[in-house]
Amino acid sequence: xxxxxxxxxxxxxxxxxxxxxxxxxxxxxxxxxxxxxxxxxxxxxxxxxxxxxxxxxxxxxxxxxxxxxxxxxxxxxxxxxxxxxxxxxxxxxxxxxxxxxxxxxxxxxxxxxxxxxxxxxxxxxxxxxxxxxxxxxxxxxxxxxxxxxxxxxxxxxxxxxxxxxxxxxxxxxxxxxxxxxxxxxxxxxxxxxxxxxxxxxxxxxxxxxxxxxxxxxxxxxxxxxxxxxxxxxxxxxxxxxxxxxxxxxxxxxxxxxxxxxxxxxxxxxxxxxxxxxxxxxxxxxxxxxxxxxxxxxxxxxxxxxxxxxxxxxxxxxxxxxxxxxxxxxxxxxxxxxxxxxxxxxxxxxxxxxxxxxxxxxxxx
Length: 364
Fold this sequence. Notes:
Elements: H1 15-40, H2 44-64, H3 66-74, E1 78-89, E2 96-106, E3 113-122, E4 134-139, E5 148-149, H4 155-163, E6 174-175, H5 181-202, H6 204-215, H7 217-220, E7 229-233, E8 237-242, H8 253-262, E9 270-275, E10 279-284, H9 304-314, E11 322-328, E12 335-342, E13 345-351, E14 357-361
Parallel strand pairs: 3-6
Antiparallel strand pairs: 1-2, 1-4, 2-3, 4-5, 7-8, 8-10, 9-10, 9-11, 11-12, 12-13, 13-14
Helix pairs in contact: 1-2, 1-5
C-alpha cells in the first residue's frame, strides 16, 4: 500500500492558551509567595491560602474544561490501520503493563503519519503485538497524536488488519501534541512573577516590620532597663511578674504594681501581700474578713529595700540566695516579715506597719 506522509501540525498560540498560561503562572507564584510570606509574618490565613488557592484554581479549570471534554466524548473517534514499528515494555511484571508503541498510522482519507503512544497491555496478550504487525487504532478527530490500539476491533476492521500490508512512515512525519513554544513559557513566567509580586506588595508592611524586628533583636529582648511586666487579676487574687533584669526593690516598682492590682480608687482590701524579687502576689479579702484584712496600698514600701538589706546582712546568712516579704495581720496586728535563705538555712526579720524592726530570728 502506498503511503503519503503528512507533515506534523504546527505549534499554536491561541489567546486562550496564552491566557491559561498566565493564570496558571500567577496562581503558582501567588501560592508559593503566600506560603513563604505567611510563614515569615506568622499569618495563618495567608499561609493556608497558599494551599487552598491552587486547589480552587484546579477545580475551576476542571469545571471550565468539562464542556470540551463532553464534546470530545460525544464525538465518534476516527478508526484507522497502523503498523507497529517497535514496542517496549516500560514497567510492571504481572497483570497489565505499560508498553510504549511506535506506530505508522494510515487513515483512509488523510495522509499517513508516525506517532508514539503508551498503552497498558495484559501480559497474556503481549505476544499478539509484534514489530511489523498491523493493528486497528482509534483517535479523536483533530488530535491524531492521541492514538489508542483497539484490542477488540469489529469483524470488518479485524479482517482488514489481517489482510493489510502497510509500509513504514518516515520518522520525519512523526506527530506529537503541539508544543506550546517559547511564547507560552514566557507568559507562564510572567504570570508566576506577577502572582508572587502581588502577594509581596500586599503584605510589604508586615514584611518590613518583621525585618526590623529581625535586625534589632535587642528591642525584643528584655534588658536591665526594660519595664515589661505581666499582670493577672481575679476576684480572689492578683499577681504582677516583672521581666528579666528587674526587681521589686527598684524605686517605685512596688507602688505602681500594687496600684495596678487594687484598681486605683477602688481600694481593695487584702489578706496577704507577698513580694519576691520579680513576683508580687496579693490575696484579696473576702466579704466578712474584717479582722484580718488591711489596705495593701498603705504598706511602708519605701522601707522594704532597707528591711531586705538588714535581713540579708544581720541574720547570719553570709551568702543569701533568695528572699521574700510576707505581709499579713492574721495575729491581729500588721506584720511585715522578711525571710531569707542561704547555705546556712533560713532566717527572718519582722517589722511593724511603719517598717520598724520588732523581731529577728537568725539562722540557726
